[in-house]
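Project outcomes to date are best conveyed with an example. Our students and postdoctoral researchers have been running inverse folding experiments weekly, and each run begins with a structure described purely in tokens. The record below, which covers 393 residues, was selected by the lab manager from last quarter's runs and is presented without edits.
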């Protein structure tokens, strides 16, 4: 089971730091560095599926194809997205600077950025921040905590996780509070483990863990240009895990972080779990869940504590039958334990539904198969609109 924890320095073989470089206009930590000192390193990454991709994503993808990653530098205060050839050179220069400071090759360094799209990073400030971070690297709790704090943008709290396995442990940190939609979310995430892995095994486990966690975290239907999830393994435990067991541990870590993202979603007052059961297959269940999660009418109703199940079934009906076969007269919808829609019609009185808790649980039964899919989203509030109306100003 995942628990909030120290983060990336929980497993043996890792050091991290978070420093104030001066990239954020309002001050505070804004540059993090994570280093893998382990005896048997392995690495893997999963990135945004957006066709508009930030320079750090392009660079880090290429580096992972050429080498095992030994360090990651992450900055908030600027996304380095849509910055052209100059932005790519900035990403390369960042990796090269970190590599030189740590005695690594540039392709052994990953780069991740988050912040406003369309503005160049102040490279003199950023590289000076790297020079501050290297001597501050620490393997203790403070190192992990400072790194998690440094990658925040609109996040109100740092997000960390710990999962203990038999003979190995997983740690992690993430940032994200808005633009949370697959592929992935507007998020940066670094996962660390002292398990003994190879690059291929790490990649298989990471893809599967992300598929059912971060890829099913959808606060506002908006996809980022910068999404990056990296897994670094040190091998320091000397323990080679069972692949299935490790994948489930990694899934638990990702799920724990994903829930923290939703709990901190911009302006949200409700965390909404949408469970689609009785689907013909996983893709059908996911399509139905996502159609409801992206309905502004449904999300606004939840904000108003209104169990308006009509907004659920109308969204379910927008999914093509070729993608999600079901009979509309078989639909059941349960909200916080009350079956408000039964057999496609009126169920128990909606007045019985208590919508005041922070968590709202919606179960949609298609009665069309055996697959079950869970997706988390958040409500649509005045605060979300206000925060995003002034993001660049």
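After processing, the design step wrote out the following sequence:
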């Amino acid at each position: 089971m995942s628990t909030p924890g120290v983060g990336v320095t929980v497993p043996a073989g890792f050091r991290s730091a978070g420093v104030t470089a001066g990239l954020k206009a309002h001050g505070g930590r804004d540059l993090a560095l994570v280093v893998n000192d382990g005896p048997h390193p392995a690495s893997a990454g999963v990135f945004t599926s957006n066709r508009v991709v930030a320079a750090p994503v392009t660079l880090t993808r290429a580096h992972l194809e050429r080498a095992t990653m030994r360090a990651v530098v992450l900055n908030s205060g600027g996304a380095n997205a849509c910055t052209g050839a100059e932005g790519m050179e900035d990403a390369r220069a960042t990796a090269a600077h970190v590599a030189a400071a740590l005695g690594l090759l540039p392709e052994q360094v990953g780069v991740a950025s988050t912040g406003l799209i369309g503005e160049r990073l102040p490279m003199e400030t950023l590289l000076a921040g790297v020079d501050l971070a290297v001597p501050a690297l620490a393997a203790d709790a403070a190192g992990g905590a400072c790194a998690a704090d440094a990658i925040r943008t609109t996040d109100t709290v740092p997000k960390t996780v710990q999962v203990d396995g038999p003979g190995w442990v997983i740690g992690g940190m993430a940032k994200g509070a808005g633009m949370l939609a697959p592929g992935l979310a507007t998020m940066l995430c670094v996962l660390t483990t002292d398990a003994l892995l190879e690059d291929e095994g790490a990649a298989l486990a990471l893809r599967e863990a992300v598929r059912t966690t971060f890829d099913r975290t959808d606060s506002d239907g908006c996809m980022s240009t910068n999404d990056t999830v990296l897994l670094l393994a040190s091998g320091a435990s000397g323990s080679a895990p069972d692949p299935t067991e490790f994948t489930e541990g990694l899934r638990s870590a990702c799920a724990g972080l994903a829930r923290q993202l939703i709990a901190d979603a911009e302006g949200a007052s409700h965390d909404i779990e949408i469970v689609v059961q009785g689907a013909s297959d996983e893709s059908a269940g996911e399509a139905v869940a996502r159609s409801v999660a992206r309905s502004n009418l449904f999300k606004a109703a939840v904000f108003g504590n209104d169990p308006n199940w009509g907004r659920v079934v109308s969204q379910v009906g927008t999914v093509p039958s070729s993608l999600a076969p079901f009979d509309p007269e078989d639909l059941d919808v349960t909200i916080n334990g009350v079956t408000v829609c039964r057999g496609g019609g009126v169920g128990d009185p909606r007045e019985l539904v208590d919508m005041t808790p922070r968590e709202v649980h919606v179960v949609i039964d298609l009665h069309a198969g055996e697959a079950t899919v869970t997706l988390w989203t958040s409500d649509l509030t005045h605060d979300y609109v206000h925060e995003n109306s002034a993001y660049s100003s």
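The mean pLDDT is 92. The domain at 271-389 is CATH 3.10.20.340 (Ubiquitin-like (UB roll)). The training component of this project remains on track.
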